[in-house]
Amino acid sequence: MMQKQIGNDLAIRLEIKHKMIYKGNRMCQAKPFLKWAGGKGQLLEQFKGYFPKELNGKGIIKHYYEPFLGGGAVFFWVMQNCKIEKSYLNELNPEIYLCYVAIQKDVGSVIKHLKNLENKYHKMNDEEQSTFFYQVRNEYNTFRKTAKTKQLSSKEVSARVAMTIFLNRTCFNGLYRVNASGDFNVPFGRYKNPLICNEENLLAISELLQKSVITNEDFAVVKKQIKPNSFVYFDPPYRPLNKTSNFTSYIANVFDDEEQMRLAGLVKSLSSKNGVKIMLSNSDPKNQDPNDDFFDKLYEDFNLTRLKAKRLINCNAAKRAQISEILVTNY
Ligand SMILES: C[S@@+](CC[C@H](N)C(=O)[O-])C[C@H]1O[C@@H](n2cnc3c(N)ncnc32)[C@H](O)[C@@H]1O
Question: 119 C-alpha to center of ligand 1: Å?
Fold first, then answer.
């Protein structure tokens, strides 16, 4: 069954590729399919000046690792601009992990389910769209409770992944937030005509993911996977700017200072390995308190740079402030 599905996916991909070549277009650039808090899309231009030089040129670096994947903005750029043979992607949030796996293995089925949701949604008026959103959200949360106890079929996985993407594209600010019992609780977003199913993008992503190992573990998994001549990009949950900005969104766990220290321990041990280049980003606590040198001390043996970024500082999208972010490298 899964074999047949994979065969179908290949056929769909080839057909789309053929259509594009026929029209004289090149395959579209893969980009994040989720709106993700802490997404690095807007920092990419600045990051380019800080990637290791071995990533380009003769392509000495063959392996790419991203243990806090989220929306994967850096992954998409690196895979399409550097000579990477294999990537190792990890995400602790099981729903997001499932999205990448289903897009890798069963993209045709994800597209089918997502188009179905999109077609229904676009035929509705504003009020019906809102009701539909809450119906899907409710079904999504109810199913999670029953799904825990059983093995999901590939059809159930792609239907669920389509729901995750649908909710992400139509909810308020594209947030991912769960309550203490793990239920997705972001309200309806009221967007005019949101693009819900970007078929070409999903197909292009699926192509890229054919070279990926995708895991659903704690970030420390990278220790088992690491190979010489690699690049590891760590983008952990932010250290909160202030007490109210900690929206505890991604998963029902806490990434506190102890977790940041555990991560720094891993960074130090990986850094001593042959040809392993490491880059890590985080919020700069000095935005709040100029005397807070938590990261300066934690990464005193590394290079630490401060970049300027625009960041949402509370739930009001209009209130974006220029703040600095830190970038740590071992090269
Ligand atoms: C700042 S976001 C990454 C954003 C991503 N770089 C992007 O461009 O969208 C951090 C991610 O780490 C995940 N995460 C949180 N704790 C984790 C852990 N212990 N191990 C692995 N991933 C974790 C969260 O679910 C979240 O997706």
Answer: 31
pTM: 0.89
**Cα dist from 212 to 69, 88, 94, 105, 204, whole Å:** 12, 6, 17, 11, 14
Residue 45 forms part of a structural domain: yes
* Bridge partners (DSSP) listed for residue 188: 171
Residue closest via CA to ligand 1's atom 19 equals 218
Give the domain range for residue 71. 31-92+217-331
For the residues 273-295, what does the mean pLDDT come to?
A: 94
pLDDT digits (tens, 9 = 90+) for 237-262: 988 765 554 444 455 567 899 999 99
87 in any annotated domain: yes
Q: Is the CB of 67 under 6 A from ligand 1?
A: yes
pLDDT digits (tens, 9 = 90+) for 3-51: 455 555 555 555 555 444 434 445 689 999 999 887 899 899 999 999 9
- Say how many Å lie between the CA of residue 70 and the centre of ligand 1: 5
Spatial distance between the Cα atoms of 67 and 59, rounded to a whole number of angstroms: 21
* 186-194 CB contacts, 8 Å cutoff, 24+ apart: 188/129, 188/130, 188/133, 188/134, 189/133, 190/126, 190/130, 193/122, 194/169, 194/170
Ligand 1 centroid–CA 97 distance in Å is 11
